[in-house]
TrEMBL record, chain B:
<dbReference type="InterPro" id="IPR002912">
    <property type="entry name" value="ACT_dom"/>
</dbReference>
<dbReference type="GO" id="GO:0003984">
    <property type="term" value="F:acetolactate synthase activity"/>
</dbReference>
<keyword id="KW-0100">Branched-chain amino acid biosynthesis</keyword>
<feature type="domain" description="ACT">
    <location>
        <begin position="11"/>
        <end position="85"/>
    </location>
</feature>
<dbReference type="Pfam" id="PF10369">
    <property type="entry name" value="ALS_ss_C"/>
</dbReference>
<dbReference type="InterPro" id="IPR054480">
    <property type="entry name" value="AHAS_small-like_ACT"/>
</dbReference>
<comment type="pathway">
    <text>Amino-acid biosynthesis; L-valine biosynthesis; L-valine from pyruvate: step 1/4.</text>
</comment>
<dbReference type="InterPro" id="IPR039557">
    <property type="entry name" value="AHAS_ACT"/>
</dbReference>
<comment type="pathway">
    <text>Amino-acid biosynthesis; L-isoleucine biosynthesis; L-isoleucine from 2-oxobutanoate: step 1/4.</text>
</comment>
<dbReference type="InterPro" id="IPR045865">
    <property type="entry name" value="ACT-like_dom_sf"/>
</dbReference>
<dbReference type="InterPro" id="IPR027271">
    <property type="entry name" value="Acetolactate_synth/TF_NikR_C"/>
</dbReference>
<dbReference type="InterPro" id="IPR019455">
    <property type="entry name" value="Acetolactate_synth_ssu_C"/>
</dbReference>
<dbReference type="InterPro" id="IPR004789">
    <property type="entry name" value="Acetalactate_synth_ssu"/>
</dbReference>
<dbReference type="GO" id="GO:0009099">
    <property type="term" value="P:L-valine biosynthetic process"/>
</dbReference>
<dbReference type="GO" id="GO:0009097">
    <property type="term" value="P:isoleucine biosynthetic process"/>
</dbReference>
<dbReference type="GO" id="GO:0005829">
    <property type="term" value="C:cytosol"/>
</dbReference>
<comment type="similarity">
    <text>Belongs to the acetolactate synthase small subunit family.</text>
</comment>
Length: 580, 179
């Protein structure tokens, strides 16, 4: 069967079970948009290519399937660079198709030419420039394979216009031949046994669960491991929801804005079982002061993560789910062996658990909402959580609102928390929420956004209205680039430099209405609940709530940049507000 | 033991797919991870689908393990061998043009003979010499030629293959478990 390169590309995407793609056409990609008309693939026309990339990320995170985006050459390709980098940092599988000027004129500075492969090389897992239409099915197959296996990540397929118009003989490759790409998935049995032995000896163990748990779909395995060992679990910013927050073993989020117990438990631990986590500097604080007495068991699918930051005592290369399942068997064997020998299984860690419970009681997250006082962002988040379904998907931007949401929301299900962890991309929330809702139309999807972030990608609410994607956006409008303001207050002697945004410029309600959404404004605490309830009832269009929140509120606890986790700063009002 | 190269340098023999852009991927990775390349030589292998790169890495700039692990993540990288100097045949080529008036010409050719170098070109007042050997031999040669006045020097960077009759010093493939 003869097809054009463009037809082969669309057919290849169909062969990979692509059900939806996010994009925006233009000159170089025009030939590929033509066969799309006849395709089963749903295309969502975005208003800015950055939106397409973040939607694909939100979709991928919520569904576990690769996100697909398609844009034209030059400025469109550069517009999607931020989402590519974001997906690279957070290991999100994306397949991005970019148009390119005709192969015959590459290198001549042709109109809308840019070296997409060169620009995206450092921020993709791999990328391809197609030079022959005959290669298209093979490359698409490889692209999906590379994006979704091993440590997932974004890939780019750059398609010159003349190649898209060239004829080719259709085929679908049976096998993938990438000799330089063979991710290891199964852990080494000897190391697994050694891990179980260390776990059996630990007095102050902590399971340090990272985003890899979610990538490996290992949440159930993690739960089994935690329950059979009784080991407490911290879930990093990328792993919120990987272990249920309402579980008695859950300590919540560690790191720069983690809660006191999670941060300190890691510091005092004698064994950290790092599962799909990467000792990010926002988790470790000053590295040489991090968990000084802890032995490390490190499980990761990326060999380069093992020993990159902290040298593990047991390094386990492999897929988190497979390795944890083997660990469970090894732990059971070790426990059985010990109980035969000495009558009891492993030594009790009840003392450690009690010690941590005591921390939880003494150092809770605190805030105070006065009935007539300014609206507290934490109160809005708590109400949002309480009044929305248990399996609500929450996306967030980057800043204070992100940290409060991650700290306070009770995540009881995996894949309910979508945020930009590694790159920290303002503007992520709105398009990511749209992508998640496209992938999971039955679920309630809220974005908790900052006023600064919202202004970076709000135009995608036009996309959401046009495509009838009823996402809900809660803007925690503190009229500031709040997180930056907090740093200036704490570390730059309250010298506020270029952080004020204004509460009512723009008018978020009018703006939202202009974009086809329902808009609400909330200034006072008593309106919070009723407005959220109204918003939750709307399911035929997007809703935006402009919460006018107290700009003075700061995120605590905090480990100041460059300091040790042992010097975590807690809210000065903790003592007074505890138990309130 | 090669006194000049160790322990400050590591030699990596990297087998890669012979496709366009692979050199950029490798050199870009070194640049963005902060690994310093001392020298790099590339050429196709006996199988034209593959190229072999010999990369000499500055050991102070990064732990070797990170370098090889990150390199291994590049999809066109097939295999990486770390060649320790005592278990590899390593050579480098140097072309050097020195000033050479008729009075000193015989001194220079004598020197060349000691180093088993070849005279490749002779001009009116200069001479171009080709010398092969381990890097420290090339260093010595250029030091001795310096007083005559070096016009231009070009070195290829090290190339290396494992010595025969024993296993490669250390084989690091993707599947290796880190110790
Ligand atoms: C694209 C981008 N630019 C700048 C920053 C730096 N930055 C981090 S948080 C922040 C403030 C965000 O303000 P807002 O969205 O209002 O959230 P808030 O902290 O007030 O909750 C800024 C500017 C960033 N993370 N991303
Ligand atoms: Mg703000």
């Amino acid at each position: 069967m003869k097809l054009t390169g463009a037809q082969a590309l669309i057919k290849s995407l169909e062969m990979e079970n692509t059900e939806v793609m996010f994009g925006l056409p233009g000159g170089a990609i025009l030939p590929v948009y033509d066969p799309l008309i006849d395709s089963s693939i749903r295309h969502i026309l975005v208003r800015h290519e950055q939106g397409a990339g973040h939607m694909a990320e939100g979709y991928a995170h919520a569904t576990g399937r690769p996100g697909v985006a398609m844009v034209t050459s030059g400025p469109a390709a550069t517009n999607i660079v931020t989402p590519l980098c974001d997906a690279y940092m957070d290991s999100i599988p994306l397949v991005v198709i970019t148009g390119q000027v005709p192969y015959s004129v590459i290198g001549t500075d042709a109109f809308q030419e840019c070296d997409t492969v060169g620009i995206t090389m450092p921020i993709t897992k791999h990328n391809w420039l197609i030079t022959d239409a005959q290669d298209i099915p093979r490359v698409v197959r490889e692209a999906f394979h590379v994006a979704t296996t091993g440590r997932p990540g974004p890939v780019v397929v750059d398609v010159p216009k003349d190649i898209a118009m060239q004829e080719m003989d259709w085929y679908w490759p049976e096998a993938i031949d990438l000799p330089g790409y063979q991710p290891t998935t199964e852990g080494h049995p000897k190391q697994i046994k050694e891990a179980a032995r260390l776990m059996g000896e630990a007095k102050r163990p902590i399971i340090y669960a990272g985003g890899g748990i979610l990538k490996a779909r290992a949440a159930a395995a993690l739960r089994e491991l935690a329950e059979m060992t009784g080991f407490p679990v911290v879930t990093t910013l990328m792993a919120r929801g990987a272990f249920p927050d309402d579980h008695e073993l859950c300590l919540g989020m560690p790191g720069m804005h983690g809660n006191y117990t999670a941060v300190t438990a890691m510091q005092e631990s004698d064994l950290l079982i790092a599962l799909g986590s990467r000792f990010d500097d926002r988790v470790t604080g000053k590295l040489d002061g991090f968990a000084p007495e802890a032995k490390i068991i490190h499980v990761d699918i990326d060999p380069a993560e093992l020993g990159k930051v902290r040298r593990p005592d047991v390094a386990l290369l492999g897929d988190c789910r497979l390795v944890i399942e083997e660990m469970i068997k090894a732990v059971r064997a070790d426990q059985d062996k010990k109980s035969k020998k000495s009558g009891s299984r492993w030594p009790s860690i009840e003392k450690w658990r009690n010690h941590l419970r005591d921390y939880q009681e003494r150092y809770p997250l605190v805030y105070e909402q006065f009935d007539d006082g300014p609206l507290k962002p934490q109160f809005c988040i708590d109400q949002l959580g309480a009044l929305s379904p248990d399996d609500t998907i929450v996306a967030s931007g980057v800043g204070q609102h992100q940290m409060w949401t991650s700290q306070r929301w009770t995540f009881n299900h995996p894949y309910t928390w979508i945020n930009s962890g590694g790159l920290g991309t303002m503007g992520f929330a709105v398009p990511a929420a749209i992508g998640a809702k496209v992938g999971m139309p039955e679920r309630t999807v809220w974005a908790v956004d900052g006023d600064g972030c919202f202004q970076m990608t709000a135009q995608e609410l036009v996309t959401a209205s046009a495509e009838r994607i009823p996402v809900k956006i809660a803007i925690l409008n503190n009229a500031y680039l709040g997180m930056v303001r907090q740093w200036q207050e704490m570390f730059y002697q309250e010298r506020y430099s270029e952080v004020y945004l204004s509460p009512d410029l723009p008018d978020y309600v009018k703006w939202s209405e202009a974009m086809g959404c329902v808009g609400f404004r909330v200034d006072s605490p008593e309106d919070v609940g009723p407005t959220i309830e109204k918003a939750n009832e709307i399911d035929d269009r997007p809703v935006v709530i402009d919460f006018r929140t107290d700009y003075r509120e700061k995120v605590f606890p905090m480990v100041a940049a460059g300091t040790s986790n042992s010097d975590v700063i807690i809210d000065p009002d903790t003592e007074r507000l505890r138990g309130k | 033991m090669n006194g000049e190269l160790a322990p400050k340098h590591h030699i990596l023999a990297v087998l890669v797919e012979n496709k366009f852009g692979v050199l950029t991927r490798v050199s870009g990775l070194f640049a963005r991870r902060g690994f310093n390349i001392v020298s790099l030589a590339v050429s196709p292998t006996e199988d034209e689908n593959y190229s072999r790169m010999t990369i000499v890495v500055d050991a102070d700039s990064a732990p070797l393990e990170q370098v090889t692990k990150q390199l291994n993540k590049l999809i066109p990288v097939i295999k990486i061998q770390e060649l320790s100097p005592d278990q590899a045949v390593e050579r480098e080529l140097m072309l050097v043009t020195v000033k050479s008036s008729s009075e000193v010409r015989s001194q220079i050719t004598e020197l060349a003979a000691i180093f088993e170098a070849r005279i490749e070109d002779v001009g009116y007042d200069a001479i171009t010499i080709l010398v092969a050997g381990r890097p420290e031999k090339l260093d010595a040669m250029s030091d001795l030629l310096a007083p005559f006045g070096i016009v231009e020097i070009q070195r290829t960077g090290l190339i290396a293959l494992p010595k025969l009759g024993r296993r490669p010093a250390r084989l690091r493939a993707v599947k290796d478990q880190p110790s």
